[in-house]
Amino acid sequence: MGQSLSGSRYELHVARKWAAETKSQDYYTIHAADLEQAPDTGEDIVGYVHSWEVGSTVDGPGIRFVAFLTGCFLRCQYCHNPDTWHRQNGKPVTVARAMQQIAKYAQVLKISRGGITLSGGEPMVQKAFAMQIFRRSKQLGLHTCIDTSGRLGERMTDEELSQIDLHLLDIKSGDPAIYQQVTGQPLQPTLDYARRLSDLGRPMWVRYVLVPGLTDGFDNVEKVAEVCAGLKSLERVEILRFHQMGRDKWQRLGLDYPLKDVEPPSPELAERVRGQFRSRGLTVY
To answer: What does the DSSP 8-state code read for residue 263?
Structure first.
């Protein structure tokens, strides 16, 4: 557990031991180890982390300490972190070690009105580890934030949700068929999670990745905007323009990248989509 975790979300990480043990398994499938849930015993449990970044200003308010946990059930066509799909393809880290790192920056994070963000992957795959990080960060007086698809939202209790100050909720599509095409998973759990956060009054920002020819359809965007308009605790919508910064990872992992020839959305397309959300009175970035 002594290796460095500081780095970029765009750096490829492959754990040699994990790669050797899973060589015969299909990379796209959810492996048995990805389904394992460690109990929250209150002890210093071990989680698996791809990397962490200090100084991010795009993963919640203020300056953020962002930890990218490994493990995810979605297989998004535009994923820029396919090396986080499997839980054990991360570096083992104890909660104590993670908190030592976070504590180093606590004062700066508080002064900037920032905090700690857990991203991934999908942090809820490692719920016990994530919740210990959140609880201990709250004890340091830090703002807590999770970047999630909401796919595993049913794992979270209301009390656990109360430990998270902001939810960055990724809604990949408003059309169930397109959502399945984009992610390989059903849309409904994400909608259920969004409405639950709304009912509980838990603050959220919705993120929508705009991919030409995939998620940019007018009717599809209208459905997402309609969902957002009904969320009482929604503070803003962020339109994230598709980019090619993850293509190299797909190639190096030997995966067929389905969007290798797709260009980023034009300014005109991005503005059209923002306008669809603004027409419902939503704050859009």
So the answer is: P
Largest CA distance in the chain: 52
pTM: 0.93
Tokens at 94, concatenated = 């104890």
Strands 46-56 and 91-94 turn out to be: antiparallel
Q: Which residues contact 131 (CB under 8 A, 6 or more apart)?
A: 40, 160, 163
- pLDDT tens for 128-174 read 999 999 999 999 999 999 999 999 999 999 999 999 999 999 999 99
Reported as a single tens digit per residue, the pLDDT across 13-62 is 788 778 877 877 899 999 998 998 877 777 789 999 999 999 999 999 99
Count of residues in the chain:
285
CB of 285 within 8 A of CB of 238? yes
DSSP label at residue 155: G
Residues 6 or more apart in contact with residue 35 via CB below 8 angstroms: none
Q: Phi-psi category of 277—alpha, beta or left, where left has phi over 0 and alpha has psi -120 to 50?
A: alpha
Query: Which residue is it, tokens 């993120």?
Result: 207
Ordered structural domains, the chain, with CATH: 45-278 (3.20.20.70)
Which residue, chain included where needed, has tokens 């959305």? Answer: 265
Q: What is the mean pLDDT of residues 184-196?
A: 98
Give the whole-angstrom CA distance, residue 42 versus residue 191.
Answer: 31
